[in-house]
């Protein structure tokens, strides 16, 4: 699938502040950047740095007063369908070292707090069958409700409230997977059909020797998701981090399928 991406960020910066952006689609084997442009209205030059795990890139800039960024791209996604039930389990002791952080609790994904729940509710399942069961449980158990969470909401809060937005679905699935011994990470992405239109958050689980994209909201499938970046949780995948104070003027994210 080919996707047209059109993003505009318009923020006010109080005083001066460094700004870290992650809004560019990542060039990867399963998604090709056919064209793209990033424009920032800033007096400071843009400085690009590698994204987490070498996926995508972050861009540093400096904001003062009005800070505006526009990103346009066409991305071709070519990815095999995820069939979770078919993937065998890999014992944690057999995983490569770079996967270890994705088995551990993190700020928004306190996976250690879910170990008892996963063992009790999903005992006997492992690997792909466990991942499929956890994904379906998150989808069935949560209500997608805008405004029901904040930037401080953790997976434990979402588990208690049974509601959230894509970020919360991702955090909860990642936490449950880690609690079940499956490496899991959060993914910032673009996808068509997201309601309301915005940056999208999904999960990736390490199964059968590769990362498998999963959208627990079921608003997107793995074949129409364009990754931006990956990380332990929302701390690593935020589309914009302001090292100071900022306020929103306008933000639009449009993702349109071209095929």
UniProtKB/TrEMBL annotation:
Pfam families: Transglut_core (PF01841). Signal peptide: none annotated. Residues 158-218 form the Transglutaminase-like domain. The lineage of its organism: Bacteria, Pseudomonadati, Pseudomonadota, Alphaproteobacteria, Sphingomonadales. This is Transglutaminase family protein. InterPro entries: Papain-like_cys_pep_sf, Transglutaminase-like.
């Amino acid at each position: 699938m080919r996707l047209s991406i059109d993003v505009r960020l318009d923020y006010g910066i109080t005083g001066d502040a460094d700004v870290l952006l992650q809004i560019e689609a990542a060039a990867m084997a399963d998604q090709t950047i056919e064209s793209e442009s990033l424009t920032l209205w800033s007096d400071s030059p843009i400085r690009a740095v590698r994204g987490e795990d070498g996926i995508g890139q972050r861009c540093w800039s400096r904001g003062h007063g009005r800070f505006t960024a526009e990103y346009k791209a066409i991305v071709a996604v070519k990815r095999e369908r995820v069939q979770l039930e078919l993937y065998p389990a890999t014992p944690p002791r057999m995983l490569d070292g770079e996967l270890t952080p994705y088995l551990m609790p993190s700020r928004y994904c306190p996976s250690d707090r879910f170990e008892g729940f996963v063992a009790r509710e999903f005992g006997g399942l492992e690997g792909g069958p466990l991942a499929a069961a956890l994904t379906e449980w998150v989808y069935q158990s949560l209500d997608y409700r805008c405004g029901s969470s904040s930037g401080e909401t953790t997976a434990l809060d979402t588990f208690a409230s049974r509601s959230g937005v894509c970020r919360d679905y991702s955090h909860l699935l990642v936490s449950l997977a880690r609690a079940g011994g499956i490496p899991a990470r959060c993914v910032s992405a673009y996808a068509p059909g997201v309601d309301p239109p915005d940056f999208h958050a999904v999960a990736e689980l390490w199964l059968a020797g590769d990362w498998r994209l999963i959208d627990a909201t079921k608003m997107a499938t793995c074949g129409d998701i364009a990754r931006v970046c990956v990380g332990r949780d929302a701390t690593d995948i935020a589309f914009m981090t302001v090292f100071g104070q900022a306020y929103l003027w306008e933000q639009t994210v449009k993702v349109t399928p071209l095929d």
